[in-house]
Specification:
The complex is a heterodimer of chains A (313) and B (307). In chain A, 79% of the residues lie in helices and 1% in strands. A two-stranded antiparallel sheet of chain A has the order 1-2. Chain B has a single domain, classed as MetI-like fold, CATH 1.10.3720.10. The N terminus of chain B is likely disordered. Classes of the chains: A mainly alpha (313), B mainly alpha (307). Chains A and B meet through α1, α6, α7, α10 and α11 of A and α5, α6, α11, α12 and α13 of B.
């Protein structure tokens, strides 16, 4: 177990470095350079040169990378000149709201997908399976903004049940629950389609295994076989798959946030992209990358705890 | 190519056998694959839908002429009529014409992305899997690092740095799409590395590059083709997302995603023709490619069983 953990953590550290290198390369790829972005109207060759010297931008790339990394590890994520705030402040306002959106969607999606996928596997090739699998496929193939628009049309226009925009950033989220429903519902449906597909194939794989046949031959009831044997085994790969789906869910959250004007990290990133507010974009990308790596690591560790076979591979 | 396990010089026994059966039909693996594929009704439906879109987008404009270059605000937001089968959008463009133009870009970019991303990813994965050790570790950590950053964040970043064009779109989307095939091919290569014909090839003195290209890659071909089909589906979605977020090819170029982002403004005005057609086109095309991918996957498994 320890050997596996050590190996996995070392891998995660290497990948974190990789992510930081990618973000650094993106930083270096920005047009005009940070000097122009910071100085804006005061930029002329003299001021740019002074800026470059002051911030060590004329040193060789590896040295710049290490300085930048040092700053990052101290928690300095950059300063947004366009919004006149540090990126940390902006993130600390928007990140929790995104966590509410992503967290609740993922949890609800899991809670529904696990029973639904199991049901689909048990009723394989019967009409209920076809209907559910078909619906899953359609939701999975639909861009999340189109699904969101359909939900707005159905639930805000035809039946005026819910507001069509997300919560505003002034009042706390908990006071605006009706505004939360549509964004969370959209993200949940898309994630649900993905998870139930995984769950269905995982349960199917387990139902044809020898141990299931043995259990049935020994007289164990179908229900016990399913819930006590097949399902727990089927859940194991889902843990890793959740870790792997994190980047996709975060991308989906970005789109949902921009559609519903949900004041989260994704919307902040998108607005920054429109305004070419590069420090915000870089800081957010770094945070999101780190979150994904840590999430994957956590998922793999949970998988190793749950499934002893993995620890000895 | 398929079934490449026969050594370079045909052993005399095989030569004689070939002569004896000279006039008979070779069983081969292509026919059963196609047969299984054709029996999968959903896959055939998928192929039909794709064929429809190709005709609609490329042959359609020759039949149904519309002006996609000049905006005509005078006739904007018109409901469907005989003149404009699906109405006009808020700039006065005919919606059907816009669908055709958008579809052309989508199909070209998606297919180009699938070819590029799959080729590059396959070679990367095969080399990593075959080399093993530190090289494998380093190559796969690079893949993991890029995978850890959500695609849309990366794509948006690049789109703000450079002005999007069809070529840039292809390059950028391929740049994030090659990661999944590389992982798949790497794990298949790890399994194939220990096969007997690889050992035989190595014993016969082939260089590693030769083994990778002559033996490993042809044998992962099935998985690669299945994955390439799903890549097309994902690329269609990626293009839609990018153009919805306003960072696809700038107007007057048409794109299904940007049609939706403009249509959103008119949800409560009831201009359904500015919303549903574009969205349904995206869904239909992605579903079609997913059906084809599923069908190919089942057909490839048949191939593997017959070996």
């Amino acid at each position: 177990m320890t050997a596996y953990l050590v190996r996995r953590v070392l891998q995660a550290i290497v990948v974190l470095f990789g992510v930081s290198v990618i973000v650094f390369l993106l930083l270096k790829a920005l047009p005009g350079g940070p000097a122009r972005a910071a100085l804006q109207l005061r930029a002329n060759p003299a001021t740019i040169h002074a800026f470059d010297v002051k911030y060590g931008l004329l040193k060789p790339l590896p040295v710049q990378y290490l300085t930048w990394l040092g700053q990052l590890l101290q928690g300095n994520l950059g300063f947004s000149y366009k919004q006149n705030q540090s990126v940390d402040t902006l993130l600390s306002e928007n990140l929790p709201r995104s966590l509410v959106l992503v967290g609740s969607s993922t949890i609800i999606a899991l809670l529904v997908a696990i029973p639904m996928g199991t049901y689909q596997a048990v009723r394989r090739n019967k009409p209920d399976d076809y209907v559910l699998t078909g619906m899953s496929l359609v939701f999975y193939s639909m861009p999340s903004f189109f699904l969101g628009i359909i939900l707005i049309i159905v639930l805000s226009d035809i039946l005026p049940l819910l507001p069509s925009t997300g919560p505003n950033s002034v009042n706390p989220i908990w006071d605006q629950l009706p505004n939360l429903v549509l964004p969370v519902l959209t993200l949940t449906l898309v994630t649900l389609a993905l998870f139930s597909r995984y769950m269905r194939s995982s349960v199917l794989e387990n139902l044809v295994q020898d141990y299931v046949r043995t259990a049935r031959a020994k007289g164990v009831s179908n229900r016990r076989v399913l819930f006590l044997h097949a399902m727990p085994n089927a859940l194991l790969p889902i843990i890793t798959l959740i870790g792997l789906s994190l980047p996709g869910i975060l991308s989906g959250a970005l789109v949902v946030e921009s559609l519903f004007n949900y004041p989260g990290m994704g919307l902040m990133f998108w607005n920054a992209a429109q305004n070419q507010d590069y420090p915000v974009m870089l800081g957010t990308t770094m945070v999101v990358g780190v979150a994904v790596v840590l999430g994957s690591l956590l998922a793999d560790v949970c998988y190793a705890v749950a499934d002893p076979r993995v620890r000895y591979s | 190519m398929i079934g490449a396990g026969v050594p370079f010089e045909e052993v005399p026994v095989i030569k004689v056998a070939r002569e004896e059966h000279a006039g008979e039909e070779r069983p081969g693996l292509l026919k059963p694959t196609i047969r299984v594929f054709m029996e999968n009704r959903l896959a055939v439906v998928g192929v039909g839908i794709v064929a429809f879109f190709v005709l609609f987008c490329f042959v359609g404009p020759l039949v149904y002429h519309t002006n996609q270059v000049q905006a005509n605000p005078v006739i904007s937001d018109r409901a469907p009529s005989l003149q404009h089968l699906l109405g006009t959008d808020d700039a006065g463009y005919d919606v059907v014409g816009r669908l055709m133009a958008g579809g052309q870009t989508t199909l070209i970019v998606a297919l180009a992305v699938a070819v590029l991303a799959t080729s590059f990813g396959t070679i990367w994965g095969a080399v990593a899997g075959f080399a093993g050790g530190m090289i494998d570790g380093a190559m796969m950590r690079i893949v993991d690092s890029i995978l850890s950053i959500p695609t849309l964040f990366l794509l948006l970043f690049v789109a703000t740095i450079a002005t999007p064009s069809v070529l840039l779109l292809i390059v950028v989307i391929s740049g994030v799409s090659w990661l999944v095939p590389s992982r798949l091919v790497r794990s298949e290569t790890l399994a194939l590395r220990t096969s007997q014909y690889v050992d035989a090839s190595r014993a016969a003195g082939s260089r590693p590059a030769g083994i990778v290209f002559r033996h490993i890659i042809p044998n992962v071909f099935g998985t690669v083709v299945v994955n390439a089909t799903f890549q097309v589906a994902d690329a269609v979605l990626a293009i839609a997302y990018l153009s919805f977020l306003g960072l696809g090819i700038p107007p007057p170029a048409a794109n299904w995603g940007s049609m939706l982002s403009q249509g959103v403004n008119y949800v409560f005005a009831g201009y359904w023709w500015e919303i549903w057609p574009a969205g349904l086109c995206i869904v239909a095309l992605v579903v079609a490619f997913n059906f084809i991918g599923d069908g190919l996957r089942d057909a490839v498994e048949v191939r593997l069983q017959q070996r």
